[in-house]
Amino acid sequence: MPLSALVTTTDPKALSIVINKEITDGLEKPQVEAMQDAVFTITSAHAMFNVVCAEKLSNLKNFIRGSKSKDPRQWSKFKKSGLLPFSAREISDLVSGWEGWMKFSDLEPHQFNLVGIRTIATIANASADVQKEVEQRLARGERVTEKDVIELIGEPKTKKSTPAASAMIGSLAEAKLRVAELEEEYKTLIKANEELRALLDKNKVNYKSTLVYSKSKAKARK
């Protein structure tokens, strides 16, 4: 029985996937198509998995944390628990990606297969024009990296940007993500510090604070 009778490409879109000739050399056409179909099916499923996870994690975060004034410790601990196949950083990136871009995008879930988790978060913090350009590339089947997004962020509309300017703007986009993460960690540490102070006070344990700013200065800064 010929291979063509054994293998059927389930989705015509799979045929557009380019596979290096070094990999396909010596294979018959049905075998190459089977490889294309496997790549398309697996990457599409992975993309849809990330989309579903991003939405679910966003909903969970908002349900656990409630308003920003409430204690975020449980969410932070959950991210670091190892209960999910993502690192704490990846969970933060998925949530940022969903809330800042994915849930507003017109792309089909499987079309996010050409962009990584870190890149998704960077796109979410970019302008609407950059997000639109990224979506057009993804819709054409082009892979988009974080470097690509940073370069798009660094391109002004009126004149060509210098490498230094592009790097600066790209760094600012990454800095924005990092600041949000550090603020969340800061709130967690402040809450933990307050609980420890209360425990020491309750047990009448003398201690000397090493904090740079006193409570009065902290209030003055608000």
Describe this structure in words.
This protein is mainly alpha-helical. It has one domain. 63% of the residues lie in helices and 0% in strands. It has ten helices and no strands. The radius of gyration is 24 Å and the shape is elongated. The C terminus is likely disordered.
Mean pLDDT: 80
How many domains? 1
> Could you give a short account of the major beta sheet?
none
Q: Name the shape in a single word.
A: elongated
The total beta strand count reads 0
Are there runs of 5+ residues with pLDDT below 50, and where?
Answer: 213-222
Q: Taking Cα atoms only, what radius of gyration do you get, to the nearest Å?
A: 24 Å
- Summarize the amount of helix as a percent range: 55-70%
Q: What proportion strand?
A: under 5%
Task: List the helices and strands in order.
Answer: HHHHHHHHHH
**Distance between termini?**
77 Å
How many helices? The count is: 10
By secondary-structure content and strand pairing, the structural class works out as mainly alpha
